[in-house]
Structures are given as C-alpha cells and as structure tokens.
Sequence to fold (122 residues):
Amino acid sequence: MTNTGLARRFTGLLVVCCLLLGGVVHAQQLTPAQMAYLKAETRKADEAFVKDVAGIVGVHSSVVAKEMPERGRIADPVARLVAGLERSLGKPLSDAQKAAIRAADAQRLQAIEQANKNAPTR
Fold:
C-alpha cells in the first residue's frame, strides 16, 4: 500500500471517529431540567422494580432495596440481587421467581431507555 492510500484510510478513519465522538458529546448535553427529568424517571423505574421484586419474593421492599447492587458496578446485577435475596431469606428462589425478577429488570431497563430517549425533548 502506498503512503497516499494509507493516508486516505487514516483520514477516513479519523473523520468517522470524530463524527461518532461528536454525536456522543452532543447526545450527552442535557439541560438541568432534562437531567432532573432523567433522574426522576430512573428513580421511578428503580422504585417500581424494587416493589415488583418484593411482591415476587414475598418480602418488604426495604429488604430488596438493601440487596440491590450499586448501579454500574456489577456485570450482572440481577444475579447479584438474587444471591443477596437468597442469602437474606436463607433459601433458594424458585426458577419461576428468578425468571419473574429478570422480566421485571427488563421492564426497568426499558423504562430507563425510554427516559433517555425522551430526556432531550423535555
């Protein structure tokens, strides 16, 4: 490959990277009101999830909230939550309960994703 061909590839790659990074930076620029909306919607989704899981497992919401791992720190937070609940209850959860918790988490994630999409228009 010639220097010209290599330079063109590098320039093309650089342009693509700049466009992608520009889109990421643009997407993250929310006003304080939009950030407040996003935070409130995320909190609502998390609270609904805790309430749902408490109903599935048959414990008080505070037990579930205590076992919730910190956001972004665990690769599979549902597995960590299930393990914590099993430890608290002193018995394993049924497969049906685990599946219901995963479904509730999918709903929570979908609500947060929708809030992320709606935040820039708020």
Observations:
- The chain has five helices and no strands.
- The CA atoms of residues 50 and 64 lie 6 Å apart.
- The helical segments are 3-27, 32-57, 61-67, 77-89, 95-118.
